[in-house]
Design a protein that fits this description.
Helices cover 31% and strands 25% of the residues. It is of the alpha/beta class and 191 residues long. Strands 1, 2, 3, 4, 5, 6 and 7 form a 7-stranded mixed β-sheet that branches.
């Protein structure tokens, strides 16, 4: 007997990467842009929660998914670069080092809330000034925490990834699947 379709999640994000990952996982969703202004230096779990809560009031009993991703290296938090110079400075700081991609995730309804955090370790190869200039000129750094996109040209910067690759792309998929399976056994095709 066929199971009725799951009600779509509400994705509180403008990120095309997050949409692509949900499509890849075959999780039904609709996008509602969050009514939330990010502040630098705030815990990504709190950002994720605030994004989800900003649209939860209009979602009925459907879960709202909020996600925020930051890059952490040697105690320094790298958000989205302001301009090319800021992007180049971030790339130089990450060159030859291992950093953490930290994502906060929040699933919110009017009745309950699930939150979690995923950490993936990424090691950059040693970058030359030409590597940095070429990458910055490509413009892929725009709107990206840590100034790179691992799913694009930024893959050329990476030597090693330990953990959830999709977390580095923009959505901690393994964490999301665990939370959905625990909360909605079988509903979204998991558990």
């Amino acid at each position: 007997m066929a199971r009725p379709p799951s009600p779509p999640l509400i994705l509180a994000s403008r990120s095309p990467q997050r949409r692509a990952i949900l499509e890849q996982l075959r999780i039904p969703f609709e996008v509602v842009a969050p009514d939330y202004e990010e502040e630098p230096g705030v815990d990504p779990v709190e950002h994720a929660r605030a994004k989800a809560r900003s649209v939860a009031g209009g979602a009925g009993d459907r879960p709202v998914l909020g996600v925020d991703t930051e890059v952490l290296c040697n105690g320094r938090l790298f958000g989205k670069p302001r301009d090319e110079a800021d992007a180049a400075e971030m790339m130089n700081a990450l060159s030859g080092r291992t950093h953490e991609v930290v994502s906060g995730l929040s699933l919110v309804t009017t009745a309950w809330e699930e939150i979690g955090c995923e950490v993936t370790r990424v090691t950059f190869r040693a970058l030359t000034p030409r590597d940095v200039a070429t990458y910055v000129a490509a413009g892929e750094w725009e709107g990206r925490a840590g100034a790179y996109a691992v799913q694009g040209f930024g893959a050329s910067l990476v030597e090693r990834i330990e953990g959830d690759y999709l977390n580095v792309v923009g959505l901690p998929a393994s964490l999301l699947v665990r939370l959905l399976a625990g909360r909605f056994s079988g509903t979204y095709g998991f558990g």
